[in-house]
Design brief:
The protein is α/β, with parallel strands linked by helices. The chain has helices spanning 13-25, 36-46, 64-73; strands at residues 5-9, 29-33, 50-53. A three-stranded parallel sheet has the order 2-1-3, sandwiched between helices. Helix 2 (36-46) runs parallel beside helix 3 (64-73).
Length: 75
């Protein structure tokens, strides 16, 4: 059985580590990104099955909601 791939996006390195560790221990392949731009690149390259996204990514121009909208628009 192939692992499900999950994209985790959080600008806080501690939170990112927690999510990555928990999901990895649950059997998921985890892609980790600390920014809007890095998350888009990973999502386009790897096509994850799901995403866990922090709403506040530390950039007032692009937050987690903007990222989810961008991912939804990208076929």
């Amino acid at each position: 059985m192939q692992q499900k791939v999950v994209l985790v996006v959080d600008d806080n390195p501690d939170e990112l580590m927690i999510y990555t560790t928990v999901l990895s221990h649950r059997g998921y392949a985890v892609l980790a990104a600390r920014s809007f731009e890095a998350a888009l690149v990973l999502a386009r390259e790897e096509r994850p099955a799901a995403a866990v996204v922090d709403v506040n990514l530390g950039d007032p121009r692009q937050d987690g909601c903007d990222l989810i909208a961008a991912l939804a628009r990208d076929p």
